[in-house]
Amino acid sequence: MGHQLGDASAPARLAAPDEGIGRDELALATRNHGLPLEALRYDVTPPGLHYVLTHYDIPYVPDDAPWQLTVGGRVRRPLQLDLAELRAYPQVTTRVTLECAGNGRALLTPRPVSQPWLVEAVGTAEWTGVPLRLLLAEADVEAGAVDVVFTGADHGVERGVEQDYQRSLPMDVAIGTEPEVLVAYAMNGAALPPQHGSPLRLVVPGWYGMAHVKWLREVTVTDTPFTGFQQSVAYRLRQESAEAGEPVTRIAPRALLVPPGFPDFMSRARVLRPGPVQLEGRAWSGRAPVTRVEVSTDDGHTWHEAELAPDDGRRWAWRRWRFAWTATPGEHVLSARATDGAGHTQPLDQPWNRGGFVNNLVQRVPVLCLEAGETA
Amino acid sequence: MGHQLGDASAPARLAAPDEGIGRDELALATRNHGLPLEALRYDVTPPGLHYVLTHYDIPYVPDDAPWQLTVGGRVRRPLQLDLAELRAYPQVTTRVTLECAGNGRALLTPRPVSQPWLVEAVGTAEWTGVPLRLLLAEADVEAGAVDVVFTGADHGVERGVEQDYQRSLPMDVAIGTEPEVLVAYAMNGAALPPQHGSPLRLVVPGWYGMAHVKWLREVTVTDTPFTGFQQSVAYRLRQESAEAGEPVTRIAPRALLVPPGFPDFMSRARVLRPGPVQLEGRAWSGRAPVTRVEVSTDDGHTWHEAELAPDDGRRWAWRRWRFAWTATPGEHVLSARATDGAGHTQPLDQPWNRGGFVNNLVQRVPVLCLEAGETA
């Protein structure tokens, strides 16, 4: 009886065949945004161009508002730290490429109804903060601890479950050094912008975005596996909704290219003129360093080695690549394909899962090369 | 024969009845983004939350790249100014609420196929720059000048027309003081972010966003009316495509409210619990100062006066309003309606035009108030 949360919060569903993007998906798309692909040119993404995905509302935290991070649960010495205290710990800055686990979802058939990303849910930033392992060492984790749970200040309901956003990491990942998890208070050398977790967020280099809990308030050590909504219900790879599914963890390899030429406003189709074109882009993998990028200019029929920028030792950031192409009049489809050191590569046919996660289908960029000398 | 621009660039069209948002509209929605409505709480919008609409690509301008602004055409003393020279002119800072002319387009029936905004294409910033009238005075405009044309560095094709983005203002607006047009080099006290026109943009307080030319390179005085694409083809109010149409100019009044309670992730439906709720929001008009905001909590059947924040003299920025409501269990639809000093108010039924411009339909925010004591 009465008015239930479920009245406002429906189960997950798949779009019907030929069902266009709905009002609900559009409302998410106008709030959250991707990296405009031309911004792949920046080594470090300006914060306003970095992709954003927020589950609930962005918490309103005035600049001078106090903020406390608690470290508790199965620890011998619980901590309560304000921002000044966090800044007094040793500081680490890591360049990290962050990608949403749902990137590519809107290209799936059938389409899981959720944030409708095409390919642009990515960005790279310099994150500065305290290594989480130092905070956990200071808090003195008890024997038998298994998970570390991270709680953000963002509150909402999802498939009927009211919640603060929470995710966990296994203890070995939380205290690991490859990657080294950060409690970050700066992005590109400045305070975090609101949409990126101001004033504190977790950064888990190499992992998809759902692990990088924003507006971080609590770190809780548990002696049983965490089974919260975002861990056990969402962010699992499943074919059928009744399956337990595999967890979503590290980022699969992907390459994207800067669309060459200039766009049509409405279709985003690319237009260029005949002659030499320097194709360029970025490639990344959270699983192992990128070792190879191949380019196709004939819709995947033939592939050619791209030139990788020298390894700059920034293991968790994307790597630049280049390929010299000569455009000839006609229609072409450009693609790039990344392979990492563990042998993972990108598929030409996307395997499907019900949540629309961990997609890394090879990008297709249709371009129209005009006849020589043709003007508008 | 051969490959034509038109192959990549289709005419404007209207969506068919019940046609969902298409891939092309989605591609625009993942690039451009609105103000997350909870960010209406900020007096001045953090740059990454301010709405963004870019017609073509965001030009890549490295921080240390030289930039020249030319002021030419029908002037006696053409200018060529770098950023340091522009900063040497008298500096003005104005707080301006900027709204996209297409805000609300995706709510129209039939829906013009273009950037599919719901209601969130707005933001407020402190813009700092040189008054345009000072530059035009220095350049010494010739008698008989009628328009001032502004050219940005963004290049693309739209409905078959290849172009740099260009808009004009009539001379009296360009040299006016109400509003005072700025050539702006700072936003909220910092250099312009790439998506907001780095390093220079025009700011025309009170006018819709299409007038605020980003990546500004050229100011050209003309002695004939400017008839470029963005002036004479796009941004006109028309019922039929063959009409000349009326130009889109100043912002019509609008109020938006901060959606109360917390959201469902997918539907963005709002959930709250019974009791007092302080409703709040912002209201603005480019046509005359906002003089009244009314609130409805019963889907527009009855209206009540909201409390307007004191007039702070910032004529071109939105004004805060508040309304004390007591939520009772059940479903409610909240709305706010702004009226300005010239008697313009917001419609409850949206007049339609083919481009989907100048919409200011009253916002509807459905909320679900749970039974007292109900928990998840």
UniProtKB/TrEMBL annotation, chains A, B:
Superkingdom of source: Bacteria
Residue ranges annotated for the Oxidoreductase molybdopterin-binding domain, each copy included: 57-229
Cofactor names: Mo-molybdopterin
Cited Pfam families: Mo-co_dimer, Oxidored_molyb
Keywords annotated in UniProt: Metal-binding, Molybdenum, Oxidoreductase
Domain Moybdenum cofactor oxidoreductase dimerisation: 275-367
PANTHER family with a match to the protein in the record: SULFITE OXIDASE, MITOCHONDRIAL, SULFITE REDUCTASE
The protein, known as: Sulfite oxidase
Organism: Streptomyces spinosisporus
Phylogenetic lineage: Bacteria, Bacillati, Actinomycetota, Actinomycetes, Kitasatosporales
